Amino acid sequence: MSKKIAIVTGANRGIGKEIARQLASKDFKIVLACRTLEKANQAKEDLLKENSNYDLLELEINVADINSIHKAANTIKKQGLKIDVLVNNAGIFPGNYNSSIINCDIGEIKEALNTNTLGPISLIQSLVDSFNKGAEIINISSGMGQLSEMNGHCPAYRISKTGINAVTKIFAEELRPYGVSINSVCPGWVKTDMGGANATRVVSKGAETPVWLATENPGYTGSFFRDKELIEW
Ligand SMILES: NC(=O)c1ccc[n+]([C@@H]2O[C@H](COP(=O)([O-])OP(=O)(O)OC[C@H]3O[C@@H](n4cnc5c(N)ncnc54)[C@H](OP(=O)(O)O)[C@@H]3O)[C@@H](O)[C@H]2O)c1
Prior knowledge:
CATH superfamily: NAD(P)-binding Rossmann-like Domain
Number of domains: 1
Bound molecules: NADP nicotinamide-adenine-dinucleotide phosphate
Number of helices: 6
Structural class: alpha/beta
Shape: globular
CATH architecture: 3-Layer(aba) Sandwich
Helix content: 40-55%
Distance between the termini: 38 Å
Strand content: 15-25%
Strand order of the largest sheet: 3-2-1-4-5-6-7-8
Radius of gyration: 17 Å
């Protein structure tokens, strides 16, 4: 049987690289989708040093650039790759933890939306005919996007992550005829460049739930998870 194929965006560091590592170790062929080919090649080299049996492909994608998304999707199609898993992991946190909606630069909000919300929409649109039946899309969201927990500050990031949750719900309905599931995951507060050194979780824990959804296919679509449990929107 041929290997399952997983595309992971932002696979060159942090949670994305760990998801790629864990899925590669479960015998997936991984498309390391990174902002530049150099970053993808470096990630490939790093992971192959850990295990030369990993099956890895490099792909350039800037999820904030529609032309780059279309180019990447065309590359996938030209190679005849049928996708089993797409992890929309690439993300940014513009501003800082003190950013206030009262006076923040609107450009920060646009920037966050462009990368964290619109990028995944465009990528799914571009790949919609390239998914295998039973495929799983995982949108890496955040508890900071939960309306049930919404609080002040960090408006750009919060709005973009609430946005990606809406994207999950809307696609969940419209992808049913394609046999494709889509869910949001909050990885928790993870020690990465974004999460910082004080974060409470290591990357392996942050990757756990996305990898569970990708490998166990527990039968959900349009849901939001943390630690393999459903959480409120
Ligand atoms: N860490 C946490 O505590 C935490 C908590 C909740 C949710 N999350 C979410 O988890 C995901 C991964 O975060 P992380 O903590 O691993 O962050 P990270 O260490 O800062 O890594 C972010 C990744 O996204 C990539 N990326 C950003 N903008 C991109 C673009 N335009 N095109 C392509 N790649 C781009 C980065 O690539 P470059 O190297 O090229 O910049 C990098 O690979 C994000 O969606 C984040 O919002 C993280």
